């Protein structure tokens, strides 16, 4: 359960020669393997990229009762109402979203600004998130960090779309 990366989802740029950038799916990222910003060969809609791989750990465990016993804690949160409330939005929120998944020894915390993302049942990039730039960071943490994350979440108004505790 080790993940560490930063990403920036490039806004839709219809004048670009790159089809993924034209569609608003493109993102750049860096991690321990790519120590400089790297344009992904696939877009955010693809399941074959680091963000989807990281979230797949959550889906594999939450959709499989036998595997979910390996998790101590998992949660998806947002300061906006979660999917499927696609018509609901707020002009005063929308930038505090994330996924936290922990086993007995370690976990990851994915913090991002993508509206209505991720779904709690399967990886799907939302259709309303192509126009603007978005960002995110994913960090690996020891189990002891979980209590600090909880303290931070108390300080803000959040909607929880799914959790196991």
Which percent bin holds the helix content? 10-25%
Which shape, going by the Cα principal axes? globular
The H/E string reads EHEEHHEEEEHE
Number of strands: 8
Q: How many DSSP H or I helices? A: 4
Radius of gyration: 16 Å
Class computed from helices, strands and strand pairing? alpha+beta
Count of the domains: 1
Strand-residue fraction? 25-35%
Largest sheet: 8 strands, antiparallel
Are there runs of 5+ residues with pLDDT below 50, and where?
A: none
User: N- to C-terminal separation?
Assistant: 17 Å
Q: What is the multimeric organization of the chains shown? A: single chain
Provide tags for this entry:
4 helices, 8 strands, DNase_II, hydrolase, 165 residues, 19% helix, globular, eight-stranded antiparallel β-sheet, alpha+beta
Quick structural overview:
With 165 residues, this protein is an alpha+beta fold.
């Amino acid at each position: 359960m080790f993940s560490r990366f930063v990403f920036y989802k490039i806004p839709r740029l219809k004048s670009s020669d790159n089809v993924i950038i034209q569609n608003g799916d493109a993102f750049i990222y860096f991690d321990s393997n790519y120590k400089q910003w790297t344009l992904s060969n696939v877009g955010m809609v693809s399941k074959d990229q680091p963000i989807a791989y990281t979230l797949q750990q959550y889906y594999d465990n939450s959709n499989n009762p036998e595997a979910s016993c390996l998790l101590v804690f998992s949660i998806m949160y947002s300061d906006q109402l979660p999917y499927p409330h696609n018509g609901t939005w707020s002009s005063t929120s929308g930038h505090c979203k994330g996924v936290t998944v922990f086993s007995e020894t370690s976990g990851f915390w994915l913090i991002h600004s993508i509206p209505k993302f991720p779904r709690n049942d399967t990886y799907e990039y939302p259709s309303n998130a192509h126009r603007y730039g978005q960002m995110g960071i994913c960090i690996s943490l020891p189990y002891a960090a979980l209590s600090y994350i909880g303290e931070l979440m108390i300080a803000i108004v959040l909607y929880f779309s799914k959790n196991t505790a």
